[in-house]
Specification:
Blueprint (H helix, E strand, L loop, with lengths): L2 E5 L3 H13 L4 E6 L8 E2 L2 E5 L3 H4 L5 E5 L8 H12 L7 E2 L10 E2 L4 E2 L4 E2 L4 E2 L4 E2 L4 E2 L4 E2 L4 E2 L4 E2 L4 E2 L4 E2 L4 E2 L4 E2 L4 E2 L4 E2 L8 E2 L18
Parallel strand pairs: 1-2, 1-5, 2-4, 6-8, 7-10, 8-11, 9-12, 10-13, 11-14, 12-15, 13-16, 14-17, 15-18, 16-19, 17-20, 18-21, 20-22
Antiparallel strand pairs: 3-4
Length: 220
């Protein structure tokens, strides 16, 4: 198995380094970012290489790559960097936590980042460049298309299709057998009970502040 170069030098890149190092057979050899965003020569004690120099210093015949970026621009930035690395000949690695509950028939694409405490039921299909943060339920026969980011404690019921480029926020709930079109945003705590057309935005209601200040509460 090849050593790994991680694209990114922020919080998610730090986390990817920890997960790959402590919970996979991979060894992280270096990080890379575009030269315009490179602010140091090293990151996490490893070389931080200008992306423009990456093939010469860490060639794709000896190293695989992983893109550790967030959902910026509705996941487009992460998808663009995946495409750029593929064009250079790199194979994109995936990470599935040993503490996730998965079954032998799980189909997941390249550059997947599936963290601890996810429950992924049988017959689920996960595309390329999908992030599942901690603690989600992905119901049986669901399909998550490419370039999706699902935050923590989301419930995806059985038979759901999540379209390319979607973002699903913390504690959202998707009922069974619905389809989300591409590039939907489902905010924290939102509840979807029907299909969502492409580029839909669904926001949960925030809890309002009570008129009584905490100093006047008698029960606490």
């Amino acid at each position: 198995m090849k050593d790994l170069v991680i694209f990114g030098a922020g919080d998610i890149a730090q986390l990817a380094h920890v997960y790959f190092t402590q919970d996979s057979p991979r060894r992280v050899a270096a990080f890379t970012v575009d030269a315009a965003y490179r602010q140091a020569e090293s990151f996490m004690g490893l070389p931080l290489v200008p992306f423009e120099e990456l093939p010469a210093r860490f060639p794709p015949d000896r190293y695989d790559a992983f893109v550790a970026l967030s959902y910026a621009k509705l996941n487009r930035l992460r998808a663009e960097k995946c495409a750029a690395l593929r064009a250079l000949g790199y194979r994109l690695a995936s990470y599935v936590s040993s503490r996730a509950t998965v079954f032998g028939d799980l189909t997941a694409g390249d550059n997947a980042f599936i963290l601890e405490d996810n429950t992924i039921q049988p017959f689920v299909r996960i595309g390329d460049n999908v992030t599942l943060w901690s603690g989600n339920h992905i119901g049986h026969h669901s399909v998550i298309e490419d370039d999706v980011f699902i935050a923590s404690h989301v419930v995806v019921s059985g038979g759901v299709r999540i379209g390319q480029g979607c973002f699903i926020g913390v504690n959202a709930t998707l009922r069974d057998h619905i389809t989300l079109g591409p590039r939907c945003v489902v905010g924290a705590g939102a509840l979807l009970l029907a299909d969502a057309e492409a580029e839909g935005v669904y926001m949960g209601q925030a809890t309002e502040r009570a008129r009584v200040p905490s100093s006047r509460l008698r029960g606490i």
